[in-house]
Specification:
The protein is mainly alpha-helical and about 325 residues long. It is built from 13 helices and no strands.
Length: about 325
């Protein structure tokens, strides 16, 4: 294991987050097994809510801390020039650990959005659902902590190849046409997918079509996933090769060199999240004892936020294509 102030700090933060997540998960499991009245009257519900809010703030801090930790390891790994090289030192577990990092702030935010609807109703119809959701969240925290440990603990200063070599391997592997051609069509595909999500959401808002059908929820969800894949593919193939260097095809290098692309991508990602959240909350409206007006109003608010963020992110990304040399 390579020890420095960043790995030690991240390990401490990860341990605290894991303890809080397991605590809220176990309490959530215990309370969800009780009847609704006993669960509502228990003071442990307030402790669970506090742990979730603390977990959200810790997870928001841990995302940049993770990438700072990886950056601090670059000088210690021969051959590594960027975060891609650090990942190559212990893959595939490194990619699993990194891929899970942005997931937890979204899951915590999703839980808090449901909590905000639930506490505004006297009967708290979503209480048992909220408590039950904490169990898989705690289990996922264990998986992520094991992935972090599996990556950082056996990490040694071995010689690795970085993104320059990866670019050469891709060309020699028969995929040179992907990088050699002009991929403005990739940007257009991303823009069309974004526009489709925006148009569908605006149509639902105009018709006040809340609660939404689960078919619409699934359409938004899968459309959003494809939208993100199109975004990553477009950035990787077009921007990195045309605007960084011909042999520096790393998405990490691209986002570091062009912070405007990083910010625009974050806005687009959050826009997709709020659209999915809107669709889910809208689907809950009127179901069971959930207040239709309250959930529908929140769904419309989340939809407006999601549409705005997605439009801003898309325009920011397309601007880099249109005005880059």
């Amino acid at each position: 294991m390579i020890l420095n102030e960043f790995t030690l700090g991240y390990g401490l933060m990860s341990g605290l987050s894991l303890a809080g997540g397991l605590g809220s998960g176990l309490l959530g499991l215990s309370l969800s097994l009780k009847n609704h009245r006993d669960a509502r009257s228990s003071r442990l519900v307030y402790l669970v809510t506090t742990l979730v809010f603390l977990g959200l703030w810790m997870r928001l801090a841990m995302v940049p801390l993770w990438f700072w930790t990886l950056s601090s390891l670059v000088p210690s790994i021969p051959g590594a020039m960027c975060l891609y090289g650090v990942h190559r030192a212990n893959e595939p577990i490194s990619w699993v650990a990194t891929g899970l990092k942005p997931l937890f702030p979204l899951l915590y935010g999703f839980w808090i959005a449901l909590h905000a609807i639930d506490i505004r109703q006297d009967n708290q119809p979503l209480l048992r659902l909220k408590l039950a959701m904490l169990v898989p969240l705690g289990a996922l925290l264990v998986v992520e902590s094991l992935a972090d440990l599996g990556f950082l603990w056996p990490l040694e200063p071995i010689r690795v190849t970085c993104c320059t070599s990866a670019y050469t391997e891709v060309l020699e592997g028969g995929f040179g046409f992907v990088y050699a051609s002009n991929h403005i069509w990739g940007a257009l595909a991303y823009a069309l997918l974004s526009a489709g999500i925006v148009a569908a959401t605006l149509r639902a808002l105009a018709r006040r079509a809340f609660p939404l059908s689960w078919g619409f929820v699934l359409a938004i969800l899968f459309g959003s996933v494809f939208c993100l894949f199109a975004l990553v593919f477009t950035l990787q193939t077009e921007l990195s090769l045309r605007m960084v260097t011909p042999k520096h095809a790393c998405l990490f290098c691209l986002l570091r060199k062009f912070p405007d692309v990083a910010i625009a991508s974050l806005l687009a990602f959050l826009g997709v999240f709020f659209n999915v959240l809107s669709a889910f909350v809208g689907g809950l409206a009127g179901r069971g004892n959930v207040d239709k007006a309250l959930a529908g109003g929140r769904a419309r608010a989340y939809a407006r936020i999601g549409v705005g963020l997605l439009i801003l992110g898309t325009l920011g990304i397309l601007a880099r294509f249109l005005f880059s040399s």
